[in-house]
Design brief:
Blueprint (H helix, E strand, L loop, with lengths): L2 E6 L11 E8 L2 H9 L1 H5 L2 E4 L5 E2 L7 E5 L5 E5 L3 E7 L4 H11 L23 E2 L2 E2 H4 E8 L5 E5 H4 L18 H4 L6 E11 L9 H9 L7 H15 L7 E5 L5 E2 L1 H10 L5 E3 L5 E3 L1 H7 L6 E2 L2 E3 L6 E4 L11 H19 L8 E2 L1
Parallel strand pairs: 2-5, 3-5, 4-20
Antiparallel strand pairs: 1-2, 6-7, 7-12, 8-9, 10-11, 10-12, 13-19, 14-16, 15-16, 17-18, 18-19
This protein binds uridine-diphosphate-2(N-acetylglucosaminyl) butyric acid.
Length: 356
């Protein structure tokens, strides 16, 4: 077990924020983690699990021991009558896994192509895009309890998935409800994730951007590969590539309001982008709310609002060696956006990434 000291994290978070980990261990196999947990010194130390760093905002040097997940391995686990059960390691790249499943002839993840980050981080925020969420294809995951070293398996119900939410985002905070206190935040490392990809595949096409591609290509029944290509093209056109411009994807969740609240906002702003949900609530496009408050292109220091998608905050620093945005600048900008959207619409936007 090698504990690296004072490790620069700039290349390990997709915002490319400059910060250091006081100590970092790379976990390539689960026994390396078990070795650490039985060690009398490291056992008691606070720990932070780091995947691809694509959903994290670093506001300073990281004092907890950083556990960098590097467990890999994609495979077909078994076939049931209805599905291929496929598995990837927590440290595998999500996008590489999507590509691998399609190459192997197991479609189902194509709508979630090009989402940055690792497979292990994907269930934490129940990633989703273009009408499909991770929970729609999820089978089970194996995780390790960071206190005891025990490995346990959770099914979808046990993960308590919600919109950009799961049991891994809750636990112990003073304001949390009793249910949330039972959460696993900071208490487990996701080692492997399994997905059930249906043998009878049906494309998921409802999303406006996908429908536009169908019209453009005069195609009414696209293949999974076709959808994969379209999703990659759509994302490349409107979302910044983290390898080029630091970002963590959507910075806020799309808020949900009651039909009455929505009617009130429509009365003031008829153009508000909104979607009626199956449970009777209405989801508003946070990007539109921020955009209509005039935030596109605005900056605080080197942190800025992306010109093509107001829901995305970016690091306008001069690349990996440049000064770049600090976590403080990003959070100052985020709070100013929250205040302005609240003052105009009475809605408090919830920050989506994990702030450390
Ligand atoms: N819009 C604006 N101005 C903006 C941004 C958006 O008017 O600056 C409008 C768009 O025109 C569109 C609507 O808002 O009518 C929604 O925008 P978009 O289709 O880009 O999707 P989104 O709701 O902003 C969500 C996810 C994305 C996911 C896309 C596609 C969340 C928080 N974000 O974004 O996920 O890729 O849908 O499914 O739910 C992520 O979570 O990091 C992420 C990128």
């Amino acid at each position: 077990m090698l504990v690296e000291k004072n490790v620069p994290l700039q290349s390990l978070n997709t915002f490319h924020i400059v910060a250091k980990a006081h100590a970092l261990v790379r976990i390539r196999q689960e026994d390396e983690l078990q070795e650490l947990i039985v060690d009398p010194h490291w056992r008691k130390v606070a720990k932070l699990v780091l995947g691809g760093g694509s959903n994290i905002v670093l506001t300073g040097d990281v004092k907890p021991l950083v556990l960098k997940v590097e467990i890999r391995g994609m495979r077909l686990v078994r076939e049931s009558a209805k599905a291929f059960i496929v598995e990837a390691g927590g440290g595998d790249s999500w996008h590489d896994f999507v590509v691998w499943t399609l190459e192997q002839g197991y479609p189902g993840l194509e709508n979630m192509a090009l989402i940055p980050g690792t497979v292990g981080a994907a269930p934490v925020q129940n990633i989703g895009a273009y009408g499909v969420e991770l929970q729609d294809r999820f089978d089970a995951l194996d995780a390790m309890d960071l206190e005891t070293g025990q490995i346990f398996t959770l099914n979808a119900a046990q993960c308590a998935f919600g919109y950009r939410d799961s049991i891994f985002k809750h636990g112990g905070a003073p304001g949390d409800s009793a249910h949330q206190r039972l959460g696993l935040k900071g208490r487990a490392m996701i080692l492997r994730v399994r997905f059930a990809l249906p043998k009878v595949w049906k494309p998921v096409l409802g999303y406006a951007d996908i429908e536009r591609k169908m019209t453009e290509h005069a195609c009414t029944s696209p293949s999974a590969m076709q959808i994969f290509d379209w999703v990659c093209a759509i994302r490349r056109a409107k979302l910044p590539d983290p390898a080029v411009i630091g970002n963590v994807g959507s910075f806020f969740k799309n808020p949900t309001v009651s039909p009455e609240q929505c009617a009130d906002i429509i009365a003031r702003d008829p153009k508000v982008v909104h979607y009626h949900m199956d449970d009777g609530t209405v989801k508003l496009a946070a990007g539109w709310l921020i955009d209509s408050c005039g935030w596109k292109g605005k900056t605080v220091g080197h942190a800025g609002v992306y010109e093509k998608q107001a829901l995305v905050l970016v690091n306008k620093g001069a690349g990996v060696d440049g000064a770049g945005a600090t976590g403080g600048e990003v959070m100052t900008l985020a709070r100013a956006i929250q205040t302005s959207v609240y003052e105009r619409f009475g809605i408090l936007l919830e920050i989506e990434p994990v702030v450390v």
